[in-house]
Write a structure and sequence with these properties.
Belongs to the amiloride-sensitive sodium channel (TC 1.A.6) family. SCNN1A subfamily. This is Epithelial sodium channel subunit alpha. The chain is of the alpha+beta class. β8 and β9 form a beta hairpin. The longest helix has 30 residues. The protein starts with a helix and ends with a strand. 22% of the residues are buried.
């Protein structure tokens, strides 16, 4: 029907027209038709928006929509393969350089770089602590009775080895069979087997250069002493190619055992009058007094005096350099009181250290010879290390698995010595006399601990190779302040009167 056809035409939306005239537009607005609704995508078309049929389409979509320079050229120039290849190579090179820069940035970041800042200041500083020792542990007259047998056997050994005769040696020296005397662990001369014939010929062929050192040692034997464990099941010889080294180490070994038996009330262990060793003491031209120093006894270096330590009420301050400022000491040394076979030098032992650090005279000290005036320059240095990811250091030693046996703050040397003493007590059952001993532990003596020498030399070898782990456990402190010092001037007195007056005197200026 005609009416039905008109109704059907009303249901279909009119097709969109382009280029309508102004009048037509007014007519449409006048008629008031509804705006055209965009067609809804089919199920297949909707899937194409979310997923691409191939990687080629995905790549083309990426190149058309990305903001990366040059990517659109890979699609636009697809009909020219040479041009496409050029842009592809250029695009890959730029991407490679970008990721290379990223790799460098991440590598630098995760390497935790640090910057080193050095500041030189000449401000007023706290003067460091200065420890001076007599270089003589005991007066020989006081300990001569304890050392008489040891000295006699040592003199006899030196006579047999090098025909060196002491003034105190007996007129009729004993035979070699009585060299050991009644002391345990006697010195023994061990025969060294000659090398094979081929080895001797190879050695003579390669030894074309003459050694500058004099050959004073015997090549057909070594000298040493035997050490065994508790049940004598394992023994070894502590030998030396040099007879002098062997005698000195053997003497030192027996001397340590004698020290452990001396009473704590020995006169040499008591504090001597300061005037017996130090004639004059001045700091910045002002005289010192008893409140400026403290005293302790070292088993090898004798009576030691520490000036300006942490126990002083008023620490010394220094701001002016020069020999007329700082600490000036005039020392007296008595060579006749030295133990002849133990002390090889005369003078004084000096060490400069921090107020809250112990004086390790073996590690950081140096000797001053008598009869001269020595000036020492010093420079203070402070070092801050970064912990965490930047380095392996400790703030105060609380995280170190080693107990501090020294009444001082944590330092690496304090930890290393405490670690060795801890191993001595654990493995040998006694304490080494050169380090502080824990409570309830005795010092080593072969009369009470017959195998301590065997244990000590075994531990010493393991300590040198870090088998004990002391160097691994004892990390460096994060903050370290130390003073570098070195003798830079030595003046020898020339006149006879001054030489006679200061023949046994050593002066220290710092």
């Amino acid at each position: 029907m005609k009416g039905d056809k008109l109704k059907e035409q009303d249901l279909c939306p009119p097709p969109p027209t382009q280029g309508l005239m102004k009048g037509d537009k007014r007519e449409e607005q006048g008629l008031g038709p509804e705006p055209a609704v965009p067609p809804q995508p089919t199920e297949e078309e909707e899937a194409l928006i979310e997923f691409h049929r191939s990687y080629r389409e995905l790549f083309q979509f990426f190149c058309n929509n990305t903001t990366i320079h040059g990517a659109i050229r890979l699609v636009c120039s697809k009909h020219n393969r040479m041009k496409t290849a050029f842009w592809a190579v250029l695009w890959l090179c730029t991407f490679g350089m970008m990721y290379w820069q990223f790799a460098l940035m991440f590598e630098e970041y995760f390497s935790y770089p640090v910057s080193l800042n050095i500041n030189l200041n000449s401000d007023k500083l706290v003067f460091p602590a200065v420890t001076v020792c007599t270089l003589n542990p005991y007066r020989y007259n006081e300990i001569k009775s304890e050392l008489e047998e040891l000295d006699h056997i040592t003199e006899q050994t030196l006579f047999d080895l090098y025909k060196y005769k002491f003034n105190t040696l007996l007129a009729s020296p004993r035979g070699r069979r009585d060299l050991g005397g009644s002391l345990p662990h006697p010195l023994q001369r061990l025969t060294v087997l000659p090398p094979p014939h081929k080895a001797r010929r190879a050695r003579s062929a390669t030894s074309s250069m003459r050694d500058n050192n004099p050959q004073v040692d015997r090549k057909d034997w070594k000298i040493g002493f035997q050490l065994c464990n508790q049940n004598k099941s394992d023994c070894f010889y502590q030998t030396y190619s040099s007879g002098v080294d062997a005698v000195r180490e053997w003497y030192r070994f027996h001397y340590i055992n004698i020290l452990s038996r001396l009473p704590a009330t020995s006169p040499s262990l008591q504090e001597e009058a300061l005037g017996n060793f130090i004639f004059t003491c001045r700091f910045n031209q002002a005289s010192c007094n008893q409140a400026n120093y403290s005293h302790f006894h070292h088993p090898m270096y004798g009576n030691c005096y520490t000036f300006n330590n942490k126990n002083n009420s008023n620490l010394w301050m220094s701001s002016m350099p020069g020999v007329n400022n700082g600490l000036s000491l005039t020392l007296r040394t008595e060579q006749k009181d030295f133990i002849p076979l133990l002390s090889t030098v005369t003078g004084a032992r000096v060490m400069v250290h921090g107020q809250d650090e112990p004086a390790f005279m073996d590690d950081g000290g140096f000797n001053l010879r008598p009869g001269v005036e020595t000036s020492i320059s010093m420079r203070k240095e402070a070092l801050d290390r970064l912990g965490g990811n930047y380095g392996d250091c400790t703030k105060n030693g609380s995280d170190i698995p080693v107990k501090n046996l020294y009444p001082s703050k944590y330092t690496q040397q304090v930890c290393i010595h405490s670690c060795f003493q801890e191993s001595m007590v654990k493995e040998c059952g006694c304490a080494y006399i050169f380090y502080p001993r824990p409570k309830g532990v005795e010092y080593c003596d072969y009369r009470k601990h017959s195998a301590w020498g065997y244990c000590y030399y075994k531990l010493l070898g393991a300590f040198s190779t870090d088998s004990l782990g002391c160097f691994t456990k004892c990390r460096k402190p994060c903050r370290t302040g130390f003073s570098r010092c070195c003798p830079y001037r030595t003046i020898t007195l020339s006149t006879i009167e001054e030489m006679e007056l200061l023949n046994s005197t050593s002066s220290l200026r710092s």
